[in-house]
Amino acid sequence: MFDPAQLAALAAVHRRGSFDLAAAELHVTASAISQRIKALEERVGTLLIRRGQPCSATPSGLRMIRHHDEVTLLERALATDLPQLAPRPATLRIAVNADSLATWVIPALAAAEGFLFDLVIDDQDVSQDWLKRGEVAAAITAHPGPLQGCDTLPLGRLRYRATASPAYMARWMPDGPTPQALAAAPALTFSDKDRLQDLWAASLPNPPPRRAGLPTHRMASSQAFIDASLAGLGWGMNPEALVANHLAEGRLTDLSPDHPLDVALHWQFTRLTAQALQPVTRAIRSAAATVLLPLTKGA
Q1: Of 36, 69, 172, 257, whose Cβ has the fewest other Cβ atoms within 10 Å?
Q2: Please, which contacts does 35-38 make with residues 24 or more away whose CB atoms are closer than 8 Å?
């Protein structure tokens, strides 16, 4: 058995990035955190935390953190099943893409009581990597798996529309999204991991040359994408659910209405904690069904 306080200190230092912030989270002194980490490292005989700015866990440390998270979830499930035990909220770390968070995930989290959520916001194409490293217990991902030690449930397709303001279209794309226009018109990109604009452009009947990267603004915010599109700053791939009213009322224009882009999403979670995660899994699947389109065969 490992000391739960030492494991909690290890997880807090890695996730908050410093001994001081970990101490504030756990309501102890930074010295106490340091002593707990040192004692745990001596117990397992290896370095668990790389001291730096920020501090981060070693591969061995990440494995210990995963053990801590799994035990915490299992203990909560046990307390739920035994009325004489008073279950306390368990912190659940999930990797989720920003557009899902902006469209349908929040109602799901609100429906799953008894958890404190620690959300890692990352692109759906790489969110599975957080699960592979053991840094999250579950992820909303574009990858169906299989992933060792994990189960995967299909959620549906998040539909995107390429949108821009009418004024932007008049200035940059008077003849529509031609290869020449796309090569010059500024787009909107969430981050360097965001490939949606390139994927959509490549799917057009007359796509721009692949060697020509799209000129782009970068802004890591789903709401900023909407605001920037409305303001005429650029064109971007926006979730249909977020822009439907703007399109219907003429504030935004669909660059190519016959060419939406659908992204298949899946709920992936560690098999060991599947039972403990059941309330969250049910809520995630229910909320996804209200917004996402059904997955096509083979997606």
Answers
A1: 257
A2: 36/3, 36/5, 36/6, 36/9, 36/10, 37/6, 37/9, 37/10, 37/13
Kindly report, residue by residue over 237-264, the tens digit of the pLDDT: 999 999 999 999 999 999 999 999 999 9
End-to-end CA distance of the chain: 42
Q: What was the pLDDT predicted at 214?
A: 85
Do residues 106 and 149 touch, judged by C-beta distance below 8 A?
no
Domain extents for the chain?
1-64, 158-262
Model pTM score: 0.85
The CATH architecture of the domain made up of 158-262 is 3-Layer(aba) Sandwich (3.40)
Bridge partner residues of 261 (DSSP): 160
The Cα–Cα gap between 48 and 267 comes to 29
Nearest Cα to 119, choosing from 139, 143, 89, 99? 139
In whole angstroms, give the CA distance from residue 132 to residue 141: 12
Residue type, 217: H
| Residue 114 region by backbone torsions, left for phi larger than 0, else alpha for psi between -120 and 50, else beta | left
Residue scoring higher pLDDT (296 or 230) = 230
CA angle, residues 299, 295, 288, in degrees to nearest 5: 125
